[in-house]
Design a protein that fits this description.
single chain, 929 residues, alpha+beta, ten-stranded mixed beta sheet, 27 helices, 30 strands, 34% helix, disordered N terminus
Length: 929
């Protein structure tokens, strides 16, 4: 089937041909001329920003494509769609970001800012583009620099500073903020249109966080009340921030320079200006936070899928042997896994109990998913709409969360300057406008520059302070458990501590009509979730013949606002002063992240998240009976609180020789919820390169950037698994001409570095293109031929449900979809690596209990690899890369390319693939307070 990039909201505006023909006529000039006449935003005369105390010495840089400006008027949207013109600062960071793959080999420290922005505090007077006093306030200014248009917010009062932050956020991301507050509330289609992708998006997030307005407000109240003075300050900051947002809404509405998407989606009239842009309120921030937390910071789930594959393994091999096989593929604590904390420390969490208690495995064939969508009409009944529901349901219920993000941090002991060097950032996907936005914020108790999620930018969430920088990667440890609640009376009552209790039904009804932005025919549907004290119902089944509902309980459920305190601390120069205080700050973040820190003399790491203390004997990998004996320790279902593991039990470290993270295993004995932490992981791409640099010593910023950039182009399968595959293939002379030629091409590619890179900058043709095509075609063929005969079709299929076989850059499957950059997070590379080495007779730690390739026979394994290699070599480029709405069939470069998915009316062209953070910092502090 042709691949499709996930299309959201205004993707129908992606190409000029989708516009009415009148836009291509001369009348477009008249229309645009009229639209360019609204009152422009008032700005004061440019003035320099006096820099706050800055200890980076010009050695802090950052980048966030495509550009800072994520708002566009209707006129700018029409010009972009008709002629390709870009609003100011809409994509001026895309070119430097996109040219690193072809330019990193010659990188020096002096050239870093050819590919990054200077992230020093302040703006020199000759670089000031504009100075705004939002709403005429005298206690805050927003200065924007000429190069990137990033807002530098300076306030003399705390209120004014946060007011300015809200105003600047709305200037740059108002439409996006509005989109995501509706996503979080499960109301996107009613706001932006009924496109199937919009239906899927709101369903995915509302399923995991089906909050009522009262729930949202309660989370604000609890976060405020439970955090003393800091909680009160956070509430005051949020209120000031929203007043700034709403001041911009009023000003842009009056001046008619609001985002043009409001017109295209029918919320405003371009002629009369009739219509309303709703003000933001505090509960919108919680709705926004729930989306971000679900995307990047909530590890766990998937216990029902685990149970189904365990049953399949036991059916194939018997209980004892089947369990052994299952555990070997699960790789909970693989001894060959790359670790972030590699100094031998052990942090046991979510480990397999010796004597499991309370396990609630379903009866064979009894599991059904709980429906979410009901009463479809019109455009909600189309096949594309139902398919979107199926895809997002699978994503929402999987433990294979969007991992992404990476970090490379080297201690000063191993650098040329004697100061730590860090290259790190979140890999949040590619959108237009971007989910993140850059800002500098300076005011009482606030001093930072960096990135924040749009609508939550009252604080910098990832960035730098006066003499320190910090970043995060998704960690994925298990904070979600599945409970089997026994039903009573009917399907909508359950036993809670022996009492038959009614489930709570929460509903959301959405309806839409066609608009200029989205021509999906009018339609509607109702989303329905049943909630229990143990969380929302996700599946129904029978256990030992009794009806149950499987529910998911997440420790951060009903606590989406709690992390605000940690971010507040990170922005406070009077709180974060060293590695220890940094770790104290991020301990207040309840989402599952790996946090990294660097200042002029020290580095640090801490794994955050509210890790629940489970009852003795409970195995977190499987559903557990909903009984008091198996609940989280001291769990209170009302506010969903429990005992959590202490900070010392979380993986943490100070001044290790180096840290790497690419969503790999954190530390010895620390189990993550997703599968795939084995001998080959994309974290190895960083580990191998950074370890080599550290061994040589004298690491510089440019050397660490080179290591990141080189790993960003590497094909993990080809670098770490292909050499062993070729050992088997070439263990005897290859007599088949086709297979021999294919093996030769693959060998040459591996010898050249196994990179997916252009022949020259902008060529849009890969070097070693034939080898790459063969590898992309071969991998799924060889995995199936290697494992399915031994596992059997049922178990093989079940295991592929736990862990996808592949996630190449051109793949449209997996958590990220096509054209998303992030690749090689989930796949069977470790299984192949261990199995092939075992067949070759090489030592394997944590080996699979059986040899699968050819039943363990080297000759039979070789026959399988050669036959599948020959088949792969015969696949044409058009078959391997079938084309989609972005690319023609057979266009290999385009199939891999990164596309910024439109969340508004402005589109951008594709850029060459790189597996790299979206927002990225390069930092080296030269002094300390």
């Amino acid at each position: 089937m042709p691949r499709r990039t996930p299309r959201t909201i205004l993707d129908r505006l992606r190409t000029p041909r989708r516009f009415p023909k009148f836009l291509k006529s001369a009348s477009v000039c008249v229309l645009i001329a009229g639209l360019l006449s609204p009152i422009t935003q008032a700005a004061a005369a440019p003035a320099a920003v006096t820099a706050a105390e800055d200890h980076c010495g010009g050695r802090c840089s950052d980048i966030l494509p495509p550009g800072e400006n994520g708002n566009a008027t209707l006129a700018e949207i029409l010009l972009n769609q008709a002629f390709g013109t870009q609003p100011s600062h809409a994509e001026d960071q895309l070119a430097p970001y996109g040219k690193l793959p072809s330019g990193y080999s010659a990188l020096t420290d002096a050239k870093i800012n050819d590919f990054f922005n200077n992230a020093s505090f302040g703006v020199p007077s000759d670089q000031v583009a504009s100075t705004t006093r939002p709403a005429g306030r005298s206690d805050v200014t927003i200065v924007r620099d000429k190069k990137t248009g990033v807002p530098h917010i300076t306030g003399t009062t705390r209120y004014g500073t946060e007011f300015g932050a809200g105003y600047a956020a709305a200037q740059d991301r108002l439409w996006l903020m509005d989109v995501f507050r509706h996503v979080g509330r499960g109301q996107l289609t009613s706001f932006a249109g009924g496109a199937p992708s919009n239906q899927g998006l709101e369903q995915e997030f509302w399923r995991n966080a089906p909050y009522t307005e009262a729930d949202l407000q309660a989370q604000i109240d609890d976060a405020t009340a439970g955090n003393g003075a800091r909680g009160q300050q956070a509430l005051a900051d949020a209120k000031a921030y929203l007043e700034g947002v709403n001041a911009y809404i009023d000003a842009s509405d009056k001046g008619r320079y609001f985002p043009g998407e409001y017109v295209l989606t029918g919320h405003k009239d371009s002629i009369t200006n009739a219509g309303t842009i709703e003000h933001f309120k505090l509960t919108d921030l919680v709705a926004l936070a729930s989306v971000i937390g679900a995307l990047f910071g909530s590890g766990g789930g998937g216990e029902v899928g685990n149970a189904l594959s365990l049953l399949a393994a036991q059916s194939r091999y018997g209980v004892a042997e089947g369990t052994e096989v299952w555990e070997s593929f699960r790789e909970r604590n693989d001894p060959e896994a790359v670790l972030t904390v590699h100094d031998g420390q052990s942090f046991p969490y979510a480990t397999k109990p010796d004597d499991p208690k309370g396990r609630a495995l379903p009866d064979a064939g009894s599991v059904t998913r709980e429906p979410l969508v009901y009463d479809r009409t019109g455009g909600a009944t189309a096949s594309a709409a139902t398919a979107a529901t199926a895809r997002t349901t699978a994503t929402a219920l999987s433990a294979a969360r969007r991992g992404m993000s990476n970090a490379l941090v080297v201690s000063g002991e191993h650098t040329a300057s004697g100061h730590p060097v860090a290259v790190f950032g979140p890999q949040t996907g590619y959108f237009a406008p971007q989910l993140l936005m850059l800002q500098e914020i300076q005011g009482p108790g606030l001093s930072a520059r960096g990135a924040s999620f749009a609508g939550l930018s009252m604080y910098v969430e990832l960035g730098r302070g006066q003499d320190y920088a910090w970043s995060a990667t998704t960690s994925g440890q298990d904070i979600i458990d599945t409970y089997a609640v026994e039903l009573c009376q009917d399907d909508y009552h359950y036993l809670y501590h022996g009492t038959c209790t009614a489930m709570e039904k929460v509903e959301r009804t959405n309806a839409w009509k066609p608009t200029v932005a989205d021509s999906t025919r009018a339609g509607s549907y109702r989303m329905q979730v049943y909630r229990t004290k143990y969380g929302p119902v996700e599946y129904r089944a029978t256990v030992d013949g009794k009806k149950v509902a499987y529910t998911t309980l997440r420790s951060s459920y009903l606590h989406e606002a709690d992390s605000i305190i940690g971010f507040q601390m990170l922005n406070d120069p009077d709180f974060v002063k060293d590695a220890g205080s940094f770790q104290s700050a991020v301990q207040h973040i309840n989402y599952t992240f790996n946090w990294f820190y660097a200042d002029s003399g020290h580095t640090a790491y801490y794994n955050s998240g509210d890790n629940p203390v489970r009852a003795a004997g409970v195995d977190p990998d499987y559903p557990v009976r909903a009984e008091a004996a198996y609940e989280w320790r001291n769990w209170n279902p009302g506010p969903n609180t429990a005992d959590y593991t202490p900070a010392s039990a979380h993986p943490n470290s100070v001044d290790q020789d180096y840290y790497v993270s690419w969503n790999n295993k954190q530390a010895k004995d620390y189990s993550t919820a997703s599968w795939g932490d084995g001998s080959v992981h994309r974290g190895n791409l960083l580990e191998d390169r950074v370890k080599k640099l550290v061994s040589a010593g004298g690491v510089t910023r440019s050397a660490l950037v080179k290591a990141m950039a080189d790993a960003a182009l590497a094909d993990l399968r080809a670098e770490d698994v292909l050499p062993d595959l070729l050992k088997v293939v070439e263990s005897s002379p290859v007599t088949d001409a086709t297979a021999s030629a294919a093996a030769g091409k693959l060998s040459a590619w591996a010898a050249a570095g196994a990179r997916r890179t252009e022949t020259s900058a902008g060529s849009k043709t890969y070097a070693n293109a034939e080898a790459i095509r063969i590898m992309d075609a071969w991998w799924p063929l060889l995995v199936k031929a290697e494992f399915e005969p031994g596992l059997g079709s049922d178990l093989y299929t079940a295991f592929t449900g736990n862990l996808p076989v592949d996630e190449s850059p051109s793949a449209a499957h997996g958590p990220t979809g096509a054209h998303a950059g992030s690749s090689f997070q989930y796949g069977w590379w470790s299984y192949v690596h261990k199995d092939i080495r075992a067949v070759l007779g090489e030592p394997v730690r944590g080996a699979l209990p059986k040899k699968y390739c050819g039943g363990g026979s080297l000759g039979a394994c070789r026959d399988i690899l050669i036959s599948t290699l020959k088949e792969a070599a015969g696949r044409t480029a058009s078959q391997v890369y079938p084309g989609d709405d972005q690319c023609s069939a057979g266009d290999q470069w385009c199939a891999d390319s990164i596309v910024h998915r439109t969340l508004g009316g402005i589109k951008h062209g594709p850029v060459t693939w790189q597996n790299r953070p979206t927002y990225q910092q390069v930092v080296e502090f030269t002094s300390h307070r």
